[in-house]
């Protein structure tokens, strides 16, 4: 795997002998953009049905994203962060986990928690600003998307410590962006995971931008994966537009974590085709050329080509899944819209296990 | 005179000061090339270059600490925290390190910093984007707290804040950025920090407010007028220092008051204002001073924001309670 590791300084010309250096890193790819297997050693073991399921989920996620943007424009959704382009990192990383592994998402990571079990209508409720969106069903091992960038990194660290203390063979995975890797919380989480040897996977989806700020202004580090070195955990870099590389890397990291080998930082190189959020104009900070270049690496196209060559997928399949996804989105948005509205009294009662007298009194203002 | 909305007035204040004083620096997340998520700094990097106006990596604690360090070196940082809820990440640097610099160094160093942050509800933003967190700031010794309610004041107050040698927490209400235009003078003028303004005269009751709530209070005052009640409305403009003299003078006239705030009811600015009224004007009161504020819950998800926030009807109701006491 394209793992970041220390090397002797002499290997680099000009380095002083007491300088610490890291080697260059190249992203792991299993599939070429043409859909050919270029790295058979890392080809994850997956049945034909599983391969089709992964494609199903990526196409579904793309359609859901497109519909969500429309619903947002119609005022039927609230806060929403587009995901198109990042289906491989999102769908692939979740697919590589067990259902009892735990997910701590950032605000863009709704697909992972939905595929891990959160009903879609609750994702819509969350977006519409309804508290029930966050009532995660029993047995679904996720937290709701985190708004404070970086906070979830520390939660995953704590959850992983919990697994370790209870001798459970589970891992916690958490996501952030390249921007999120600049927060203090990120370094603190990685360092704890190193110090306590925790079964955590820190997945950075490096989509090149934090809102408008490009990667080059975010850090002078050669890669995000390099940041693992200082924390004493594994750091790997993968092609985040290649769903098989994502699955290979996350499966490996999860295996290592479950077996006491500690944490991994995975940097997936990816791109968001759409704006940062609904109120953002990409033309102010991105070029058409760059967008075109990345759309050639579209994870759906690449994996679709691979499957088509195996006779597992066709354009008709894509059309069918799109239809299915549209219907599902319609059904779930209706369910979200029909959910009984929140009330201020209900909100007040959700603050404490037992509503204290001063809050009981405050309810009077809202009756 | 130019017509400006509050966002343009804020931008203009930064432009005036960047031009006037080479030590003024403007920075934060996304403030450079694009001019911030609200475009409050749009064009400033183009005009002043990217050493004076620049994007930082995504790290609020570092933004705050950078400002503290730069402040000791003679610079005057205007640091933007992109949305109010993200100040928690920077609390140590803003409310401990910046606010204590003068005290800890025996006056040798200070923190001539403005921390600008948008806040304020009613826009159905995501969680932690809108909370009114001024209560945290006013509990913090050593930092001034400014919350303008209109474009003219915003520009004049921000210029004062940038020239102030102490740290200023400058809160900009999201719902006021584009709400309306005002006559705003070109170039240089200041509105003093620590001076409230009576924005409507009245004799029956005083409504004390700041930020967007000034406008809500004015709406309530119009409603009250229909029932023959003359409400006086005070725009505090700054919470630290608090202009208690203007408040007391008004209460001497009206003998009744309420305080409106967007922040949750307990232990906030309203509670402090009422405590000071008790200390300085209790003998002029005909009724207890009441608060009109949201309940003590977290700022709710978007769905019930409107029901939760104070509105004109609730202000009227609170005023009627003090009138009927
Ligand atoms: C603590 C904190 N600071 C700032 C923000 C505002 N904000 C939301 S998204 C974002 C950029 C995030 O970029 P990145 O981590 O690269 O993730 P991406 O959106 O590209 O997936 C910023 C600055 C926030 N939500 N939380």
Automatic annotation (TrEMBL), chain A:
InterPro entries: Alpha-ketoacid_DH_E1_comp (IPR050771), DH_E1 (IPR001017), PdhA/BkdA (IPR017596), THDP-binding (IPR029061)
SUPFAM superfamilies assigned to the protein according to its UniProt record, in alphabetical order: Thiamin diphosphate-binding fold (THDP-binding)
Leading EC class: oxidoreductase
Cofactor(s) for this UniProt protein: thiamine diphosphate
Substrates-to-products reaction catalysed: N(6)-[(R)-lipoyl]-L-lysyl-[protein] + pyruvate + H(+) = N(6)-[(R)-S(8)-acetyldihydrolipoyl]-L-lysyl-[protein] + CO2
Coiled coil: none
Pfam families to which the protein is assigned, alphabetical: E1_dh
Keyword Oxidoreductase: yes
Listed EC numbers: 1.2.4.1
Transmembrane segments annotated in the record for this chain: none
Gene Ontology MF annotations: pyruvate dehydrogenase (acetyl-transferring) activity
Presence of the UniProt keyword Oxidoreductase in the record: yes
UniProt domain Dehydrogenase E1 component: residue ranges: 57-343
UniProt keyword list: Oxidoreductase, Pyruvate, Thiamine pyrophosphate
GO BP: branched-chain amino acid catabolic process
UniProt subunit comment: Heterodimer of an alpha and a beta chain.
Function (record text): The pyruvate dehydrogenase complex catalyzes the overall conversion of pyruvate to acetyl-CoA and CO(2). It contains multiple copies of three enzymatic components: pyruvate dehydrogenase (E1), dihydrolipoamide acetyltransferase (E2) and lipoamide dehydrogenase (E3).
Protein name: Pyruvate dehydrogenase E1 component subunit alpha
TrEMBL record, chain B:
Keyword terms, alphabetized: Oxidoreductase, Thiamine pyrophosphate
SUPFAM superfamilies, A to Z: Thiamin diphosphate-binding fold (THDP-binding), TK C-terminal domain-like
GO molecular-function terms, A-Z: oxidoreductase activity
InterPro entries reported in the protein's UniProt record: THDP-binding (IPR029061), Transketo_C/PFOR_II (IPR009014), Transketolase-like_Pyr-bd (IPR005475), Transketolase_C (IPR033248)
Cofactor: thiamine diphosphate
UniProt key word Oxidoreductase: yes
Domain of life: Bacteria
UniProt KW Oxidoreductase keyword: yes
Pfam families xrefs: Transket_pyr, Transketolase_C
Residues in Transketolase-like pyrimidine-binding domain copies: 4-179
The protein, known as: Alpha-ketoacid dehydrogenase subunit beta
Leader sequence segment: none
NCBIfam families for this protein: PRK09212.1
């Amino acid at each position: 795997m394209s793992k970041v590791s220390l090397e002797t300084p002499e290997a680099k010309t000009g380095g002083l002998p007491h300088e610490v250096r890291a080697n260059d890193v190249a992203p792991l790819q299993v599939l070429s953009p043409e859909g050919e297997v270029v790295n058979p050693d890392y080809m994850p073991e997956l049945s034909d049905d599983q391969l089709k399921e992964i494609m199903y989920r990526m196409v579904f996620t793309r359609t859901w994203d497109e519909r969500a943007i429309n619903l947002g424009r119609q005022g039927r959704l609230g806060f929403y962060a587009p995901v198109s382009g990042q289906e491989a990192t999102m769908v692939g990383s979740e697919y590589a986990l067990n259902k009892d592994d735990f997910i701590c998402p950032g605000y863009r990571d709704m697909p992972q928690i939905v595929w891990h079990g959160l009903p879609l209508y609750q994702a819509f409720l969350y977006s519409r600003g309804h508290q029930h969106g966050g009532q995660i069903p029993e047995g679904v091992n996720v937290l709701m998307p985190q708004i404070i960038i970086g906070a979830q990194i520390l939660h995953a660290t704590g959850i992983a410590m919990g697994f370790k203390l209870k001798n459970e063979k589970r891992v916690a995975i958490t996501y952030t962006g390249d921007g999120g890797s600049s927060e203090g919380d990120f370094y603190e989480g990685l360092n704890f995971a190193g110090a306590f040897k925790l079964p955590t996977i820190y997945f950075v989806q490096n989509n090149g931008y934090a809102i408008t700020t490009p990667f080059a202004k975010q850090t002078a580090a050669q890669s995000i994966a390099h940041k693992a070195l200082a924390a004493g955990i594994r750091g790997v870099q993968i092609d985040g537009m290649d769903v098989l590389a994502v699955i290979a890397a996350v499966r490996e990291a999860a295996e290592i974590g479950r077996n006491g080998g500690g944490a991994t930082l995975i940097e997936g190189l990816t791109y968001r085709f759409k704006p940062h959020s609904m109120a953002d104009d990409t033309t102010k900070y991105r070029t058409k050329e760059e967008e075109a270049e990345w759309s050639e690496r579209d994870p759906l196209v690449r994996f679709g080509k691979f499957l088509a060559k195996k006779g597992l997928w066709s354009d008709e399949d894509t059309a069918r899944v799109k239809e299915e996804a549209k219907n599902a989105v319609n059904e779930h948005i209706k369910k979200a819209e029909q959910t009984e509205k929140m009330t201020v009294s209900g909100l007040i009662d959700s603050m404490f296990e037992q509503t204290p007298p001063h809050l009981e009194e405050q309810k009077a203002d809202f009756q | 005179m130019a017509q400006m909305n509050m966002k343009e007035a804020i931008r203009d204040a930064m432009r005036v000061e960047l031009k006037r004083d080479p030590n003024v620096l403007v920075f934060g997340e996304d403030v450079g090339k694009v001019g911030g998520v609200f475009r409050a700094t749009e064009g400033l990097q183009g005009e002043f270059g990217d050493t004076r106006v620049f994007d930082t990596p995504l790290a609020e604690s570092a933004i705050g600490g950078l400002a503290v360090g730069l402040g000791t070196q003679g610079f005057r940082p205007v640091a933007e925290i992109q949305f109010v809820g993200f100040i928690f990440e920077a609390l140590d640097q803003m409310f401990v390190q910046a606010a204590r610099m003068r005290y800890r160094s025996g006056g040798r160093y200070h923190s001539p910093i403005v921390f600008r942050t948008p806040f304020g509800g009613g826009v159905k933003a995501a969680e932690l984007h809108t909370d009114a967190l001024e209560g945290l700031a006013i509990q913090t010794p050593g930092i001034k707290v400014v919350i303008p309610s209109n474009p003219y004041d915003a520009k004049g107050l921000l210029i004062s804040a940038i020239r102030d040698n102490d740290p200023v927490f400058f809160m900009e209400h999201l719902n006021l950025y584009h709400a309306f235009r005002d006559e705003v003078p070109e170039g240089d003028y200041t509105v003093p920090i620590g001076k409230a303004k009576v924005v409507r005269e009245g004799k029956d009751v005083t409504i004390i407010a700041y930020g967007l709530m000034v406008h809500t209070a004015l709406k309530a005052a119009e409603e009250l007028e229909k029932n023959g009640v003359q409400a006086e409305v005070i725009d505090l403009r700054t919470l630290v220092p608090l202009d208690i003299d203007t408040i007391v003078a008004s209460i001497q006239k009206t003998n009744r008051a309420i305080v409106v705030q967007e922040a949750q009811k307990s232990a906030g600015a309203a509670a402090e204002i009422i405590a000071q009224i008790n200390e300085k004007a209790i003998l002029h009161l005909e009724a207890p001073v009441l608060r009109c504020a949201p309940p003590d819950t977290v700022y709710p998800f978007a769905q019930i924001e409107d029901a939760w926030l104070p509105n004109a009807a609730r202000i009227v109701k609170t005023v009627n309670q003090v009138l009927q006491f």
